[in-house]
Amino acid sequence: MIRDEVNQSIIISGESGAGKTETAKIAMQYLAALGGGSGIEYEILKTNPILEAFGNAKTSRNDNSSRFGKLIEIQFSETGKISGARIQTFVQCADGERSYHIFYQLCAGAPHALREKLNLRTADEYKYLRQSSCFSIAGVDDAEEFCVVMEALDVVHVSKEDQESVFAMLAAVLWLGNTSFTVIDNENHVEAVEDESLSTVAKLLGCSTGELNLALSTRKMRVGNDTIIQKLTLSQRRTGRSISILDIYGFESFDRNSFEQFCINYANERLQQHFNRHLFKLEQEEYVQDGIDWARVDFEDNQDCLNLFEKKPLGLLSLLDEESTFPNGTDLTFANKLKQHLHSNSYFRGDRGKAFTVNHYAGEVTYDTTGFLEKNRDLLHLDSIQLLSQCSCPLPQIFASNMLNQSEKPVAGPLFKAGGAESQKLSVATKFKSQLFQLMQRLESTTPHFIRCIKPNSLQSPGVYEQGLVLQQLRCCGVLEVVRISRSGFPTRMSHQKFARRYGFLLLESAASQDPLSVSVAILHQFNILPEMYQVGYTKLFFRTGQIGVLEDTRNRTLHGILRVQSVFRGHRARVYIKELRKGITTLQSFIIGEKVRKEYAVLVRRHRAAVSIQKRVKSKREMNRYQKLCDASVAIQSVVRGWLVRRCSSDIGFLRSGFKGAEPEEVLVKASFLAELQRRVLKAEAALREKEEENDILKQRLQQYESRWFEYEVKMKSMEEVWQKQMRSLQSSLSIARKSLAVDGSSRNSDASVNDDQDPTSLEAEPLTESNGTRPMSAGLSVISRLAEELEQRSQVFGDDAKFLVEVKSGQVDASLNPDRELRRLKQMFEAWKKDYGMRLRETKVILNKLGNDQGGGAAIDKVKKKWWGRRNSSRIN
Ligand SMILES: Nc1ncnc2c1ncn2[C@@H]1O[C@H](COP(=O)(O)OP(=O)(O)OP(=O)(O)O)[C@@H](O)[C@H]1O
């Protein structure tokens, strides 16, 4: 389809139950696998169960028999991908047909001004009109006809403005057909090319080209409450390329055959004719026309049988319609009429009663005319239709209004009246025939492929093969003749031009200047195609089966190779180009950077020179100032020294003024001995000064050493003093606590107790505390502690005074003939010895007091005091 750019059709035929519907599904699946990918193929396949549910029924010959015919048109994009499908038939413009007259009339007859305004061209310049090669009707002048139409429009009072608007719309439709699309991104989204077609359409419609382009290349979709604008792809545009699959009810022959079988078998008869026409008639006619050597193959032509159905006025269908129009007509009168008029036709046989037999291509079928007229009339009264149109359900409304609309239209062809003038309509047989003709026209515009389904048995059982039945089908369908014609015939054919164009590039030697036939022959020779495998006609080359495949394979391989070579070469060229480009860029960059750096360097050099020059100036100025000051100072010193010398030696020297006149400078004359004396004195004074300075330095050093030693000593003394004071404070607090505790305890036991202050602490052990009430020992303990406290106070006073004195001696505040350092060490030793002794005595006192407390039964109270005192003592123990 893609290669030949011709639509195709797959016509599946065979008896009822032979497998047409199943085959159609397989064909659809095959096409979906080949051209699928967008997901639409899934939707197409899903139509099968719906159609079968609504359109199939069980018959005696097939449990799933199609009771309708369907033509599934699968549409493809330019890339061969499925882009859509339709299942209804429609009228297309086939070869030998034209579109609506007005288009051709407008193109041919529009006056100059209108032509300019609408930018009109001739009919063959519009794609829509070019679809068929027929542009004119013999004996009809479209230009004249256009004048007639314009006149008529004037007569029926259509204003000139309205007429122009109509013509503008017609021209817009024609130009719209000429718009082309270009891919704008990787996802195959397209946009209309902004050319003359698009701008003309926009002008004629009165919109901007941008708006028109948007409308042509996007689609608005509603998702919930939002509107999404979706860009369209090429595959979403109809290319007009399609493959149609025809699956209609198969040939039927039951024990009793009625109007339905009559119609079905007539349709199959038509399809058989199509098959014969393409495989035998046209094929052989083409061979003969192109003058190839061909022995004619005979075949069973069913044209006579078809004539029996279609002939006017004495064909089966015409007679049926005629009889249906008679109010008194019955099935019997119909049967009699058939027998009367058709008894001489070899394909017809009148039977007894209301029956008749037709000799179909697939065998004889006897029809019973009972119900023929009723079914053909297909009565549906206007009342019923009106009732349906008033129903609340939308579907019956739509159906009824369609039917009403149709009944209002004037109809051509055989009509009959049934139930009044308002129920005018076509008979079923006429409609069936007209649909069949439309279908055949549609199929005629495609390249047909036929699938013959052969029914293996009439039992609907697997694994049963009825040889006679199969042979009969093969014979009836003309399969044997097809095999014969295929073996001896040339199924593949191609015009010389097309063949030369398609395979010419495979030639080893250039044949550009040669005519297509010579090129074609050269190709055949080059590929060693045997003479018996092809024939050269006047306009075409004819090939036997399988020959073109070799050429096609070679072509594909070569094209693939060429593409590969091209891609490699283009890649190489691109790489070389990029390399050169990079090199050029680097060179340019180096020039630019060099220039920039040179400029920057020049600025830097200028700045540097300026800085050096400024520095030079500043330094020289500074040095000059200093030099000037030095000179001034020297002069001042010289003048002072000279003045001093002059004054000092004024008594010894004589001032001699030159006897010259006032302008001469004064001159001082000094004796040499004075000068020598002066110099000696100066030198001596300088030596003494140096000596004193050295002495001064030594003294300074000593002073520093002394100060640092003093500082160390001071620090040491300070720390010792702090330690002593701390220890003293600790002893004092311990003693005061002990004293307070004992005093409290003693007063609670014996308020009359008196304390013996004169008691020596050392006599505590020698003088046992034996009074029974315990008053004596307690007061003795208190006195011991008091004495210890006193001793501590005295000693701390003494040690403190001694230390203070030594510090004063050391610092020179007090004169004393002793060595303060040595005395301090001795004082420290004494303090340590006393501290040790004092601590020992303190502990002994504690032990004795403990013992006392325990012996006198007042243990609990003493314990309490003891715990209190010693508990605190533990935290501030003397070290
Ligand atoms: N290829 C097949 N393999 C197995 N069974 C098949 C095949 N083709 C058809 N059949 C069987 O035959 C039955 C009838 O096939 P199908 O409905 O396709 O016949 P048909 O020719 O379309 O008949 P009709 O003209 O009555 O519609 C199917 O239901 C299936 O059981």
UniProtKB/TrEMBL annotation:
Pfam assignment, any one: IQ
A GO MF term: calmodulin binding
GO cellular component: cytoplasm; membrane; myosin complex
Matching PROSITE patterns: IQ (PS50096), MYOSIN_MOTOR (PS51456)
A single BP term in Gene Ontology: actin filament-based movement
Chain coiled-coil ranges: 675-709
Keyword annotations from UniProtKB, A to Z: Actin-binding, ATP-binding, Calmodulin-binding, Coiled coil, Motor protein, Myosin, Nucleotide-binding, Repeat
Region (Actin-binding): 436-458
Binding residues annotated for ATP, in chain numbering: G14, E15, S16, G17, A18, G19, K20, T21
Domain Myosin motor: 1-556
Residue ranges, annotated region (Disordered): 746-778
Family: Belongs to the TRAFAC class myosin-kinesin ATPase superfamily. Myosin family. Plant myosin class VIII subfamily.
PANTHER family membership: MYOSIN, MYOSIN-1
Name of the protein this chain belongs to: Myosin motor domain-containing protein
